[in-house]
Specification:
Order of helices and strands: HHHHEEEEEEEHHEEHHEEHHHHHHEEH
Shape: extended
Helix content: 40-55%
Distance between the termini: 129 Å
Radius of gyration: 45 Å
């Protein structure tokens, strides 16, 4: 009985240890395993046969207690080791889950960034045509770059944006048509100072001409005083001024289409151009000495052409000088003061000096945006002077244009101060000319390929021939049809359409040149193959096209 009671006592200890293990948080995911081990241990001890010891009663009790304590300690150590193992596994699982979640988050962020990049590229490539670069590792020495097959990418994007800006019409309250111009769209509103005592508000509007379809810039002066009629004939003398740095003047007229008596002067439209006031002053754009030299030289170039015609601008300031994103500068609003009759009579020499002095005033306004160019003088108003970052030549030019060195300003002296910087402007103009000429040569031959594609389209798939309903499917015309399929309807090994511009352009160029190189053409059912040269194909196309031109009218039956 004592032995059985000791066994029950040991079983109770094991069960209590199992309960302790089960109550631990690390063992909550697998309580069934704990219960199974506890029951197995208890049943093992209970099934063990009792040991009969024929010794003194006190000795048997001590030995039994010793064995029970040893078994309990061993079981406790097992439970403790298993608890540590499961705790370590739980920690490792938590770390693995955290790493997995971190990896998923990074992958999600990377996918979002890639999608945003793809959307940006799609928006940038939102046009009718673009070329895809091959993978960097697939380029061969004999392979031509993408720029060899089409216009320069930067130039193409710039021209595409200019075309988009030219054709875009902004919804506004402007009338649809004024005089011979329609599709009016507002551009910019500036205040033009035409003499020392007054100024006018000028609304610049883009419009398309009914006569030639070109776009022009309409400069509208609203609310003109009827008592002071404009001198519209004064605009005729400005039509002879032709300079790359002057927006050419076309005509002037008055209209009441805007609801008042408005004066409109028509100039060339310069896409994406905006006034220097908006570009540099209002937007606080960074200004460098090289940019200022470029602006001064281009403005002086325009003034040279105007002064050579015996005319003066009178309205030269930052609001009437435009600049494109590529740095091209134009004198705008020329002849406006003459049409308004702002000066009944004036000394032409003094007017020419005022134009050159206005260039110096423009530099003062631009430099005053930077505090390092403003010198504070005690007891006097601040003075604008080029800061230490400017060269001595520019400081001398600044003083010369603002009449601080001499009261008389001459264009030749400005060119002398500019020195070698004039050659920088010439080099930039010649590089732009070379770029345009080089890309024009690339596009010059595109008309030949277009005519060749038109001939192939005229010949293939015709069912209205007066000679034979199957005319397009027989003889030389069948070769042309197979060649058309080879060029435009090619498929890859996995059955996907091949859209390869290089393949199309290369084969059409060989066909147009009549190359002796041979090409294998396969029928649509893949049961027959024909090997012909490009020269033979060209002869077939010319003969079939000539046959179409010489065909007789069809006699329809009643």
């Amino acid at each position: 009985m004592a032995t059985v009671s000791k066994q029950k006592s040991l079983t109770d200890r094991v069960q209590s240890s199992a309960k302790l293990r089960a109550s631990s948080p690390a063992f909550q995911p697998s309580p069934s395993k704990v219960r199974q081990k506890t029951v197995a241990t208890a049943s093992t001890i209970a099934d063990k046969p009792p040991t009969v010891v024929c010794t003194h009663r006190n000795s048997s009790n001590g030995s039994a207690n010793t064995n029970a304590n040893a078994n309990a300690n061993a079981s406790s150590r097992d439970v403790k080791d298993e608890h540590q193992d499961l705790s370590a596994k739980a920690v490792r699982n938590d770390n693995a889950i955290a790493q997995l979640q971190s990896g998923i988050a990074k992958t999600h962020i990377s996918l979002e960034a890639q999608q945003a990049s793809d959307k940006a590229k799609d928006a940038a490539n939102d046009d009718d045509f673009f070329l895809m670069e091959p993978a960097p590792g697939n380029n061969k020495e004999y392979m031509k770059p993408v720029g060899h097959f089409a216009i320069d990418e930067g130039l193409r994007r710039m021209l595409t944006e200019e075309t988009r800006m030219t054709d875009h019409v902004v919804e506004s309250e402007l009338p649809f048509q004024v005089h011979n111009y329609h599709s009016l769209s507002p551009l910019e509103t500036v205040h033009v100072v035409y003499n020392m005592s007054g100024s006018v508000t000028q609304h610049e509007i883009k419009a398309q001409s009914i006569a030639d379809g070109n776009h022009y810039s309409l400069h509208r002066i609203p609310s003109l005083d009827p008592a002071k009629g404009p001198n519209l004939g004064a605009i005729d003398s400005w039509r002879v001024v032709n300079s790359p740095n002057v927006a050419r003047v076309h005509e002037a007229f008055t209209t009441r289409a805007f609801g008042d008596n408005s004066l409109v002067v028509v100039y060339d439209y310069k896409p994406m151009a905006s006034s220097l006031k908006h570009t540099l002053v209002d937007n606080r754009a960074p200004v460098t000495e090289a940019l200022l030299w470029s602006i001064v030289l281009q403005v002086v170039s325009g003034l040279r052409a105007i002064h050579a015609a015996g005319l003066a601008v009178h309205t030269l300031d930052l609001a009437t000088v435009s600049m494109t994103p590529t740095g091209r500068v134009y004198l705008n609003s020329c002849g406006l003061a003459d049409v308004l009759g702002a000066f009944a009579s004036y000394n032409i020499e003094a007017a020419l000096q005022n134009d050159l002095h206005a260039v110096g005033n423009m530099l003062v306004v631009i430099l005053s945006m930077n505090r390092e160019n403003v010198v504070a003088v005690q007891g006097q108003s601040p003075v604008v002077m080029p800061g230490p970052s400017f060269t001595t030549d520019f400081k001398e030019l600044f003083g010369y244009l603002n009449r601080r060195l001499t009261p008389v300003i001459a264009i030749d002296d400005i060119l002398r101060l500019a020195g070698s910087r004039v050659f920088l402007e010439l080099d930039a103009a010649r590089r732009e000319t070379d770029l345009l000429s080089r890309n024009l040569r690339l596009e010059m031959a595109n008309g030949r390929l277009a005519r060749l594609v038109c001939k192939i389209s005229f010949i293939t798939e015709r069912t209205d021939s007066v000679m034979d309903p199957e005319w397009s499917e027989t003889g030389d015309r069948y070769l042309i049809k197979l060649f058309r399929d080879y060029v435009f309807h090619l498929v890859s090994e996995d059955g996907r359409p091949v859209v390869d511009m290089a393949h199309v352009v290369g084969n059409l160029n060989k066909l147009d040149a009549g190359s002796a190189e041979r090409v294998m053409l396969m029928s649509r059912d893949e049961k027959s193959c024909l090997v012909v040269s490009y020269a033979e194909l060209k002869r077939c196309i010319d003969a079939a096209y000539q046959e179409l031109l010489n065909s007789q009218p069809k006699q329809w039956r009643n």
